Each structure stands twice: as C-alpha cells, then as structure tokens.
Amino acid sequence: MDRPKVVLGVSGGIAAYKACELLRRLTESGHDVRVVPTASALRFVGEPTWSALSGNPVSPQVWDDVHEVPHVRIGQAADLVVVAPATADTLARAAHGLADDLLTNTLLTARCPVVFAPAMHTEMWENPATRENVATLRRRGAVVIEPAVGRLTGVDTGKGRLPDPAEIFEVCRRVLARGAEGGSADLAGRHVVVSAGGTREPLDPVRFLGNRSSGKQGYALARTAVARGARVTLVAANTDLADPAGADVVRVGTAVQLREAVLKAASDADAVVMAAAVADFRPATYAAGKIKKREGQEPAPVELVRNPDVLAELAADRPHAGQVVVGFAAETDDVLANGRAKLARKGCDLLVVNEVGERRTFGSEENEAVVLAADGTETPVPYGPKEALADVVWDLVARRW
C-alpha cells in the first residue's frame, strides 16, 4: 500500500515522552512513520521504544546506513515532517539552516509541509531570539504551532507546554490533506479570531437561558486555520472540547463576556469569524437565590432584555479597513431568505447560513451550508465534515485579503 510517509522529529525535551502518543495515532491511522530523534531526545525516550512503535529503524546519526544516504533520502521521500516537541535549540538550528545531525539534515532536504510543535519554558518561548526564529520559519512556509498554557517542568506554569498529542495529530492530518490537494500555509502571517460554542445567560445560581451549540464548527474553523499557518485566537463559550493545538483559547460564559473578549482580540485581527451561538436576550434580573416552586402559584414571567449585537458592532466599527468579518446564521425556516436579510442587516462580508434543529447540525460532526457574500455571490457547501466547511470559509476570507 502507498501509505503517506511521515517523519516524526523528536527534540531533547521532557515532553519527548508525549510524542509516543502522537506516533501511535499516526501509525494506527495508516501512516508510515520514520522517527528521527536528536541525541538528546534519546536520553528521555530510548531508541528501542521508537523503533518498536514505528516499525522502522531509528538513529540520530548521519553515519548509520551511509550507503542509503539517509541524510538526504528521508527528507526527500517524506509527505510530512512534524517535529514534536520542538525545543528552542531545534527551532534555532532549523531557522539558521544548520545540519549537524540527521534531523536538521532531514529538515533541509524536505520538500513537503513541515510542522513544528514547540515545547519549552515560558521565558525561552518569549525570548526575542526564539520569536525571531519562529517568525523566520513561518515566513518560509512552516507551520509553527503555538504552545499550550499549563504546567511546565517543576513547579512552573505558563505558555510553553506541548499541546495535546491528539490535537497535534489533527493539525498533521489537515496539513497532509491540504498538501495532497496542493494547498499550503496560505494564512501564514495572519491573525484570525474565531468564536465558538453557545453563551449562557444566568437566571439564578442554578438555571440559565442557553442553546444547543456544541462549538464543533468553531473548533473546526480554529483547527483548519492553525493548519493553514494562521495565529488563532479562539473565544470559546461553554464548550467541553479539547483545546485545538496552536490556538490561544479564551473561555467565556455570557454574551457580554464574549463581546468583551472578541472585541479585545479583534483589535489586531485580519479576520473575525463569529461561529458562536450568541444569545439574543438575557433575563432582566438575576435572582441571587434559587427561584423556588410555590404550591398553588404560577411562576412569575421572566422579563428579557436584548444582548449586544456583537456581529453588527464588529462589522460597523473595524479597527482597519482590511479586516474581514464573517457571521453565522442558524435558521429553522426560510433559510436563505432570512440569511440574506441578516447579511444586509449585520453588514458583514460573509454569512454562513445553515438549517438547524434538535437533531440537525447541533452536536454533529457534519454540516451543510450556503455562504452568502456582501457582493451577492453564494457558495453552497454540500453535506460533509465541518472542517470541509471551515476550509471553504477560509478560502473565501483569503480571497478578500
């Protein structure tokens, strides 16, 4: 079988053990994986482990099996190179074109997409030297995933943690798919903001007004944007999904909180995609204690007030002329007619219109939609994975840049 060939580079950091899980996911999904560790990485996870899990020989040296010219052949034959974890040292050597071991030689000879998943202490990640190296790699077309925030080595906590291996795998899968389709990191250098999930408006300490949005479409938009090279801020409202690798996640609860987070993140964004289901109304008053059921008495009516219209505000007050604003319209009837009216009313550039219901779209892995544009064009997206719709949205956004 002609299986996709993946090179998994492993740098010498404590997070090297997590690469075993990434390797397992790659091999079990049908990829032919060649692990290329640095000499330092082998001090954390030994050669027999990598060889047993991958089914391929493992060596950090250019001197082994010289007759096969591994320092050239491995990179030439690869469909994807992913380095996880990528230490500050590995990023620096890759950015400066050094070639003193098998991994850096492979990076220099690869003509396929390259993904780096950095892992290091916060101070190292924020150091100007590292930031310049990352910018250099991104400018050359590599996808450098933003590290996660969390517990680091020892007692330290901050940005620099290796993202969850399952989420790194999702980025690799999307990069491979786009490579097969002739795609590239076309969103490199762009900052995009995506909202996802559904806001909840508290009525009392135990009850709220909410909606059925799972956040899966917004997360698909975030994942595909990361795989296409963008810096992604994801404003997540009441979701229980794993953080997409490479996205800076801001968690919110109510529509007012979402508005504040989105407007802050949008100040330097090239695009804002409002995929979250934002409540139109909230209770006018909040009961400090649980509202009790009274025998023989009907409950008091719940008075509602309007929430801020975040999408309309974004479209009307853009921080710079080139910012693209995308909205979503979940409709239950007269879908396109209501969508066209909403597009005109909100003033956004694109509006993704889909039909929703109790057993339709919400919580599903698939979606079907029509993307309406302010210039009058309409792009139908047939029923399929939500990431396919996400790619169409980013294609349309990129054209407007």
From TrEMBL:
<keyword id="KW-0479">Metal-binding</keyword>
<keyword id="KW-0436">Ligase</keyword>
<keyword id="KW-0288">FMN</keyword>
<dbReference type="InterPro" id="IPR035929">
    <property type="entry name" value="CoaB-like_sf"/>
</dbReference>
<keyword id="KW-0460">Magnesium</keyword>
<dbReference type="GO" id="GO:0004633">
    <property type="term" value="F:phosphopantothenoylcysteine decarboxylase activity"/>
</dbReference>
<keyword id="KW-0456">Lyase</keyword>
<feature type="binding site">
    <location>
        <position position="290"/>
    </location>
    <ligand>
        <name>CTP</name>
    </ligand>
</feature>
<feature type="binding site">
    <location>
        <position position="346"/>
    </location>
    <ligand>
        <name>CTP</name>
    </ligand>
</feature>
<comment type="pathway">
    <text>Cofactor biosynthesis; coenzyme A biosynthesis; CoA from (R)-pantothenate: step 3/5.</text>
</comment>
<dbReference type="Pfam" id="PF02441">
    <property type="entry name" value="Flavoprotein"/>
</dbReference>
<comment type="function">
    <text>Catalyzes two sequential steps in the biosynthesis of coenzyme A. In the first step cysteine is conjugated to 4'-phosphopantothenate to form 4-phosphopantothenoylcysteine. In the second step the latter compound is decarboxylated to form 4'-phosphopantotheine.</text>
</comment>
<feature type="domain" description="DNA/pantothenate metabolism flavoprotein C-terminal">
    <location>
        <begin position="187"/>
        <end position="398"/>
    </location>
</feature>
<protein>
    <recommendedName>
        <fullName>Coenzyme A biosynthesis bifunctional protein CoaBC</fullName>
        <ecNumber>4.1.1.36</ecNumber>
        <ecNumber>6.3.2.5</ecNumber>
    </recommendedName>
</protein>
<keyword id="KW-0511">Multifunctional enzyme</keyword>
<feature type="region of interest" description="Phosphopantothenoylcysteine decarboxylase">
    <location>
        <begin position="1"/>
        <end position="191"/>
    </location>
</feature>
<dbReference type="InterPro" id="IPR007085">
    <property type="entry name" value="DNA/pantothenate-metab_flavo_C"/>
</dbReference>
<dbReference type="InterPro" id="IPR036551">
    <property type="entry name" value="Flavin_trans-like"/>
</dbReference>
<feature type="binding site">
    <location>
        <begin position="308"/>
        <end position="311"/>
    </location>
    <ligand>
        <name>CTP</name>
    </ligand>
</feature>
<feature type="domain" description="Flavoprotein">
    <location>
        <begin position="5"/>
        <end position="173"/>
    </location>
</feature>
<dbReference type="GO" id="GO:0004632">
    <property type="term" value="F:phosphopantothenate--cysteine ligase activity"/>
</dbReference>
<feature type="binding site">
    <location>
        <position position="342"/>
    </location>
    <ligand>
        <name>CTP</name>
    </ligand>
</feature>
<dbReference type="Pfam" id="PF04127">
    <property type="entry name" value="DFP"/>
</dbReference>
<dbReference type="InterPro" id="IPR003382">
    <property type="entry name" value="Flavoprotein"/>
</dbReference>
<feature type="binding site">
    <location>
        <position position="328"/>
    </location>
    <ligand>
        <name>CTP</name>
    </ligand>
</feature>
<comment type="pathway">
    <text>Cofactor biosynthesis; coenzyme A biosynthesis; CoA from (R)-pantothenate: step 2/5.</text>
</comment>
<keyword id="KW-0285">Flavoprotein</keyword>
<dbReference type="InterPro" id="IPR005252">
    <property type="entry name" value="CoaBC"/>
</dbReference>
<comment type="similarity">
    <text>In the N-terminal section; belongs to the HFCD (homo-oligomeric flavin containing Cys decarboxylase) superfamily.</text>
</comment>
<comment type="similarity">
    <text>In the C-terminal section; belongs to the PPC synthetase family.</text>
</comment>
<feature type="region of interest" description="Phosphopantothenate--cysteine ligase">
    <location>
        <begin position="192"/>
        <end position="401"/>
    </location>
</feature>
<feature type="binding site">
    <location>
        <position position="280"/>
    </location>
    <ligand>
        <name>CTP</name>
    </ligand>
</feature>
<keyword id="KW-0210">Decarboxylase</keyword>
<comment type="function">
    <text>Catalyzes two steps in the biosynthesis of coenzyme A. In the first step cysteine is conjugated to 4'-phosphopantothenate to form 4-phosphopantothenoylcysteine, in the latter compound is decarboxylated to form 4'-phosphopantotheine.</text>
</comment>
